[in-house]
Amino acid sequence: MITRNFFLFLSQNKFVKAKATKWGPKLGAKSVIAGETIDEAMETVRQLNEQGLSGTVDHLGEFVYSRDEAIESADFCIRTLDAIAEAKVDCNLSLKLTQLGLDVDRNLCRDNMVRILETAEKYDNFVRIDMEDYSHLDATLELLHELRQRFDRVGTAIQGYLYRAEKDIRQLEGVNLRLIKGAYKESPEVAYQKQEEVDRNYLNIIKSHMLNGSYAAVATHDHRIIDEVKAFAKEHNITKDKFEFQMLYGFRSELQTEIAKEGYKMRVYIPFGEDWYGYFMRRLAERPQNVTFALRGLLSK
To answer: d(Cα 295, Cα 300) in Å, to the nearest integer?
Structure first.
């Protein structure tokens, strides 16, 4: 059986990544990546908006190692925010701090984020800092805290498989958070390994964040968790404007439109760009259904 660890290994394998562009489209990558350019991403967002769905776009790429690359990535984020405003679409921006130079120079990364958030503020838009692997967690939260001294329209993600997630949620009261299970391979020293433990902790942090009155973006494809969140909101009189559901572009599209028709905010995470490989491998690692999806694409060619 193809395992989660196998795909997580592939996500970090440079040799396979170098070869991936030749067979990536056959594995269904084009069905979950909204093209390579900003224009292609905006057209995808427009189509989703017409179905009653909101969007957040993410220019794929991570682990930048030079100042010039980091500045270039920040400039691209700013152009993306400009494009969102020009297209008049319902869409936020998601990004990774490693793209903006977190591993190069923290101050460089902060300055890049300030430029991006100034642009988002001009357009009254929101920026989500994606959470990366555990080694970047403290630096991400520290920088978020610093940025929120000046900017309100910025948040991050908390990963439900981490033991510390509940503590982090309490310390981030009032922050718009995307709540996810987690997609990286982490040590048993810092993360739950059994699915039932991850699910239990994930639901706990969702409920904790919703109860303290903070905005929660519940990012899951698990219909059981979605149903439980709906029931929990009704039980505690939490109105639909206090939370939203999020799913990945290309996965469970029918459920996405069904949720939107029920009057809930349904936001689709829309990745785009040439550097799709690591993202795609992590999606395959998350759920067996995703592997089936990819193999179906391979066999249909």
So the answer is: 9
Ligand-binding site membership of 183 (annotated): yes
Q: Is 103 a catalytic residue?
A: no
Q: b/e map of 128-142 (b: 16 or more CB within 10 Å)?
A: bbbbbbbebbebbbe
pLDDT tens profile 13-44: 454 444 455 555 445 566 788 988 999 999 99
Count of Cβ atoms closer than 10 Å to residue 12 Cβ: 15
For the chain, the structural domain boundaries read 34-275
Candidate list 58, 128, 130, 199, residue with the active-site label: 130
Q: pTM for the full model?
A: 0.86
Q: What interhelical angle do 277-286 and 4-11 show, nearest 10?
A: 170
Return the CATH architecture of domain 34-275. Alpha-Beta Barrel (3.20)
Residue 207 in marked binding region: no
Residue 159 annotated in ligand binding: yes
DSSP 8-class letter at 161: T
Residue 182 marked as a ligand binder: yes
Q: Is 130 a catalytic residue?
A: yes
Q: What is the DSSP letter of 128?
A: E
